[in-house]
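pasting Serine carboxypeptidase-like 45 for the record, 268 residues
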Amino acid sequence: MEFSTDFNSEGDFYWSHGLISNPTYELLTTTCNTSQIWREYITGNTSVACSKVSDQLDAEIPDAINLYDVSSNVCLSSRGSLLGVPNHPLSPRFKFFPSDQSSLDALKQSKSGENIDLCVGEKIFRYLNRKDVQETLHATLVGVSQWSTCTSVANYDLGNLEIPTIDVVGLLVSSGIRVLVYSGDQDSVVPFTGSRTLVDGLAKKLGLNATVPYAAWFEEKQVGGWTEVYGDLLTFTTIRGGSHMAPFSSPGRSLALFAAFLSGKPLV
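structre below
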């Protein structure tokens, strides 16, 4: 929602979750922070200092860590290798889907404590590339040989990441529209710490006091996360154990959160 706050919170998250060492965290706070690494990547002017910091992050965070869900295992392909998320300055560390997506013998793995198939990406890839499925969906491949999750065909202006969207949230609240900002607390790509800071700052800017102080909320008698409400319209909530794609990793807690929001019922 705001470039520097969101991306700098990545470094704090890495350190607080044990992904990087104290010396590396010190480099992030004194030499080159994560938002600066992003900026240099976008502009194409990478400094020696930031390159060294990025290399140190690569050295300490294994490829087998899914930064969208740091507490989860990853899906291993038949080759035991992983696919880096494209178009990211730290792409060697961003691993999500297996590289051998066409393989028919991908390992089935489940996230500990959840009935979640971590290899669902492979299955979706195979399913949507079936000719009968494409015919049923009336989907025609144009200019590509197969459907894929990510593509280099669409070119995005990464400079637009500098455009803050937290002001849009403020506009909605000022217009009388209820807003929920939520985060999976195991997501290091858009960490909850950055979102929480931005929402709290927005509340202060709008003159909103906390009507529901920061507190745990429950789903099925277990802690579902933490929440805080500002005024009558602005809510920040975390989903405990949730990933970047919280409805995938934590479906029960996500459903409880969305149902409460849509019905206008408080979580606590």
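Confidence is low (pLDDT under 50) at residues 78-113.
Residues 192-206 form the longest helix (15 residues).
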